[in-house]
Specification:
By secondary structure, the protein is mostly helical. The protein has helices at residues 4-27, 34-41, 45-49, 55-79, 87-95, 100-118, 120-147, 156-176, 185-197, 206-213, and strands at residues 150-152, 199-201. Helix 1 crosses helix 6. It is elongated, with a radius of gyration of 20 Å.
Length: 214
């Protein structure tokens, strides 16, 4: 049977991650100290180093946690499109939801991206994490087109990059001018047009219709 500290490790890690996201959002990646994160989480510095080697390692753990949330939310949105009259609008609206966690993550990820651009080794690690997330998004985009009964005519990896750029860029503008631009406004207005432009309807076949109803 696992010993006490081993059994408590997931809870310790979760509290450190939550404290780190809050601290990074308030103080910035460079401004936040390990001591401040530990104090907010209620742990010693030793607890931090038993879970993470560096602040960068902590960021990438937060990245993976955020990526998991993104994939799960997109998967649910794709699964639910049969329950709405405008499936693309429904998916985009759900993916553009800005809650406090997403707000904090945007602040941290934007600053860390600039940090990575200045440090090539970090940039390569960030690119690896981005690639893994993008692979999942590409898979779900394929499912989305299939559910829409459309066939993409462009490379889905490039499309995933473009939609991420639209999402991040429009979110930045919305956070600067929240009274003029809602977080989802640009995505729900223009991405449906893009999806139509980069795909074509699949041939209607009896077997396909029956399998979709099933």
């Amino acid at each position: 049977m696992p010993k006490g500290p081993t059994k408590r490790r997931p809870q310790t890690t979760a509290r450190l991650l939550e404290a780190a996201l809050e601290t990074f959002a308030e103080r910035g990646f460079h401004g936040a100290s390990i001591e401040e994160i530990c104090e907010r989480a209620g742990f010693t510095r030793g607890a931090f180093h038993s879970n993470f080697r560096t602040k960068e390692a902590l960021f990438f753990a937060l990245f993976d946690l955020h990526a998991q949330r993104v994939v799960e939310r997109l998967a649910r949105a794709v699964d639910d499109i049969d329950d709405t009259d405008d499936p693309v609008w429904a998916v985009l609206t759900r993916m553009s939801t800005l809650d406090e966690t997403e707000h904090r993550w945007y602040l941290l990820s934007t600053e860390f991206t600039l940090h990575a651009i200045r440090h090539p080794d970090t940039a390569r690690t960030l690119a690896d994490h981005d690639r893994l997330l993008r692979e999942e998004i590409v898979r779900l985009l394929g499912r989305l087109f299939d559910r829409l009964e459309r066939r993409p005519t462009v490379d889905l990896d490039s499309l995933a990059r473009l939609t991420a750029a639209v999402h991040e860029g429009s979110l930045a503008q919305s956070l600067v001018e929240p009274d003029r631009l809602a977080p989802e406004q640009l995505a729900v207005t223009y991405l449906p047009l893009l999806i139509d432009a980069v795909s074509e309807p699949l041939p209607k076949t009896p077997s396909r219709k029956s399998s979709r109803r099933a």
